[in-house]
């Protein structure tokens, strides 16, 4: 909703302020660093979501093994 509140004049003022603070030469370095940071964040986020199903599958397998062991123990007692 922040984008709806910003008009063209406000966006232009923000761009001018950023250029004044960082300078034109430094601005390309800042943009590159920001892009690398975003890429790294997405890569790590995707890596975390890939690990989750593996853990769930392993947990499910361990639970089914423990349940089958419990059934075997009950049957041997009877």
Q: Ends: how far apart? A: 67 Å
What quaternary form is this?
Answer: single chain
Helix content: over 70%
Order of helices and strands: HHH
User: What value does the average pLDDT take?
Assistant: 77
As a percent range, the share of strand residues is under 5%
Question: How many domains make up the coordinates?
Answer: 1
Task: Note the overall shape.
Answer: rod-shaped
Walkthrough of the structure:
- It is a single chain.
- With 78 residues, the protein is mainly α.
- It has one domain (21-77).
- It is 94% helix and 0% strand.
- It has helices spanning 2-5, 8-22, 24-77.
Question: What is the topology?
Answer:
Blueprint: H1 2-5, H2 8-22, H3 24-77
Question: Can you summarize this structure?
Answer:
The chain is built from 3 helices and no strands.
Give structural attributes.
rod-shaped; 78 residues; mainly alpha; 3 helices
